[in-house]
TrEMBL record:
Pfam families: MaoC_dehydratas. The lineage of its organism: Bacteria, Pseudomonadati, Pseudomonadota, Betaproteobacteria, Burkholderiales. InterPro entries: HotDog_dom_sf, MaoC-like_dom. This is Dehydratase. Residues 29-124 form the MaoC-like domain. PANTHER family: (3R)-HYDROXYACYL-ACP DEHYDRATASE SUBUNIT HADB, 3-HYDROXYACYL-THIOESTER DEHYDRATASE HTDX-RELATED.
Length: 145
């Protein structure tokens, strides 16, 4: 069996405009299994994310998603738009808790074209739930040919 690797072709700097949207990424609803798998993969076993008793002791009604899980989803969306080597920076700010059964919806929009030796664009990023409530916001700087 052979594995095919699909190389992502970044858009050209001349072909993008301020206001252009990145292809969005919608993930399955967050479940306890999602959190357990992420905890294992990331080695982040914070009990607030995986243990109901610990979450309740801390005043939360239930466990909730790791903030870095949503950050990873945003990174995945950007890396599906351009090859990873084009991503110069990616930063996020946590806005609110991602609850169980929230459906993460990641979006991005080009907000600035930065001309110079390295043609770059600034992309605003958002990971929201199915009600449109922002969970993470941020930006990426991406270099385009």
């Amino acid at each position: 069996m052979t594995t095919q690797i699909h190389k992502i072709q970044a858009p050209r700097f001349s072909d993008v405009q301020v206001g252009d949207k990145l292809p969005s990424l919608t993930l399955p609803a967050i479940t306890r299994k999602t959190l357990a798998l992420y905890a294992g993969a990331s080695a982040d076993h914070n009990p607030l994310h995986i243990d109901l008793d610990s979450a309740r002791e801390a005043g939360w009604p239930d466990v909730f998603a790791h903030g870095m899980l949503s950050a990873a989803y945003l990174g995945r969306m950007v890396a599906a738009w351009v090859p990873q080597e084009c991503i110069r920076s990616l930063s996020v700010r946590f806005s609110s808790i991602t609850q169980l059964q929230d459906t993460p919806i990641c979006s991005g929009e080009i907000t600035e074209k930065l001309e110079g030796d390295d043609r770059r664009v600034r992309v605003t990023l958002k990971c929201a739930n199915q009600q449109g409530e922002p969970k993470l916001v941020g930006e990426a700087i991406v270099s385009l040919a």
